[in-house]
Write a structure and sequence with these properties.
The chain is of the alpha+beta class. Helices cover 51% and strands 8% of the residues.
């Protein structure tokens, strides 16, 4: 009856007209949008599974710092039921926690990611990627306890509904469902707005326009351009904070708005992510955030930015096609699911007790996000040292272990790492702000070094003993400051000793043995079960 009355749309809200047109795939096309979005998703997935493949054994393997095989029984104990544990923490690792299975899942994810990056993926392969990534997240413990892991889970799940079930080609014969594009815009809005709100609620320096006076120096892993950003005048920093508020608190509101405003908002948010990528090594957070932001643009925009050969391929793919019944049903289903699951994230956004980076259900389908709710004023770094001397004294020669990304040697230039993620280096940044009791994984790392563990050495840039096990290790804490690139001062950092974070320990030290026992760690040659709890 509705279709029999011409002009009825005049009496309906614009959003309702747009919604109906979207489900019918009328209006602007998004084939090029889908093409670019999925290529970037392929890049992020490739990085994520590369970290699982090359760092996973040392972090989560049977001889890793926090083995999956030890974690799963603790989940069962916590939930008092294996069945409940499986439901609350769904992962393929319930089938096996062996090192071979870990490597097989990581390799499978990497292969599928490369196929996606090359343009050959369908809904089945994207669903497999989502399952594989979620499997690592749910057993990754502290190494995967970052907001971008659940953000990748949500982003990857939406991608399943962007493409046909069977066709694996860059430009499928089915159109990119417009409602799924809207769901990506809704994701961009939540990511950016959540980041903006957590800042103004979490640290006074954001409202005082002073946070950037510290951020570039105290961020987790500075990059080669961080010193230039840090030593810019305060007026530049204050302007940057003000623009940050505009981009995170105002621009996202137009992600679901009229086309011109949406495109302007998308351009502002995309440029903002590019600046963040240049200013430091924030893992793949900003690359991942670009994915839903790209959904703010349609094919009319991308046809002007991409090679004309791609635009012509997209045009040919659009000729004489329409969405299938199955695609309509799947699109309607995921749209309804996201609407219902968005209630908790919306409530969190408007709450004065806003939580940062949180899932509200085990699958991480619709989450809440935030970044840098507080900014440190001083950069502290842990420096691990070891010695081959059998006894300690004034003449003991201590040598430093060098990490691959985090600051260590003041003369070494900060690396260009993004979008790759050095998980141990990030956690060491957190540990420098706490104590061994708060970050016991550092003590487990020391135990591994005292054993001469070859696995854990793969996480380091330099072992000063070339594989030999030291007799003692210790951890010092230093204050690090970025040297101005225009200064004649040598090096890239200056550092000042702040004190001892952990005193010298040997493999046979009873304090080490007891600590490992209390925190549930096991190391080769150290049997914590033989130690009485005190």
């Amino acid at each position: 009856m509705r279709d029999e009355i011409p002009g009825l749309e005049r009496f309906e809200p614009r959003w309702l007209v747009a919604l109906r047109a979207g489900f019918d795939n009328r209006g602007p096309s998004h084939d090029l949008t889908r093409f670019v979005l999925l290529r970037l998703l392929g890049l992020v997935y490739t990085v994520a599974f590369s970290t699982a493949l090359f760092q996973g054994p040392a972090l989560l393997g049977s001889k890793g710092l926090t083995p999956i095989a030890s974690y799963l029984p603790r989940l069962v104990e916590h939930f008092e039921s294996r069945a409940i544990a499986v439901i609350r923490a769904p992962t393929l690792f319930w089938a096996s926690s062996s090192d071979g299975f870990l490597m097989a899942l990581a390799l499978a994810g990497l292969v599928l990611s490369l196929c996606l990056l090359a343009g050959f993926a369908n809904a089945k392969s994207l669903l497999a990627l989502w399952v594989l990534h979620l499997s690592f997240v749910n057993v990754g413990q502290l190494w995967y306890n970052f907001g971008w892991e659940i953000q990748l889970a949500e982003t990857g799940f939406l991608a399943v509904f962007l493409v046909p079930w069977n066709q694996a080609r860059p430009f499928p014969t089915l159109p990119a469902p417009t409602p799924v594009i809207w769901l990506y815009r809704w994701l961009a809005l939540r990511i950016m707005l959540g980041a903006g709100l957590i800042k103004v609620r979490g640290d006074d320096c954001w409202l005082a326009l002073t946070c950037l006076d510290y951020h570039f120096e105290t961020q987790p892993v500075p990059g080669p351009l961080s010193a230039w950003f840090h030593h810019a005048p305060h007026a530049v920093h204050a302007t940057g904070v003000a623009l940050n508020h505009v981009v995170e608190l105002v621009a996202p509101l137009f992600a679901l708005g009229p086309r011109r405003l949406r495109i302007a908002a998308g351009a502002a948010m995309a440029l903002f992510q590019g600046i963040l990528i240049a200013s430091g090594n924030l893992s793949y957070l900003n690359w991942l955030t670009l994915i839903p932001i790209l959904a703010c643009f349609d094919d009319a925009v991308f046809s002007k930015l991409l090679p004309q050969a791609l635009a012509r391929r997209a045009e040919r793919a659009r000729e004489g096609r329409s969405p299938s019944r199955a695609q309509r049903r799947a699109t309607l289903g995921i749209f309804g699911v996201v609407v219902v699951l968005s209630i908790a994230p919306i409530w969190n956004l408007v709450s004065s007790e806003q939580a940062m980076n949180r899932s509200f259900e085990p699958l991480g389908l619709v989450n809440t996000y935030g970044a840098f709710g507080s900014v440190g004023r001083v950069r502290s770094e842990l420096v691990i040292e070891g010695t081959l001397d059998a006894s300690l004294g004034p003449t003991t020669v201590w040598r430093e272990y060098e990490f691959r990304a985090k600051p260590g040697d003041p003369l070494r230039r900060p690396p260009w790492l993004t979008p790759y993620h050095r998980r141990l280096d990030w956690l060491m940044w957190f540990a420098a702000m706490g104590s061994p009791q708060e970050y016991p994984f550092v003590v487990q790392l020391l135990a591994k070094l005292l054993e001469g563990d070859a696995n854990v050495r793969t996480l380091l840039a330099r072992d000063p003993f070339d594989g030999r096990a030291p007799e003692y290790v210790r951890v010092l804490v230093y204050r690090y400051e970025l040297v101005s690139p225009l200064s004649s001062e040598p090096g890239h950092f200056r550092r000042t000793l702040g004190g001892t974070w952990l005193p010298p320990l040997s493999k046979s030290d009873p304090r080490l043995r007891e600590f490992l026992f209390v925190h549930g760690f096991r190391a080769d040659g150290i049997d914590p079960t033989s130690i009485e709890s005190r």
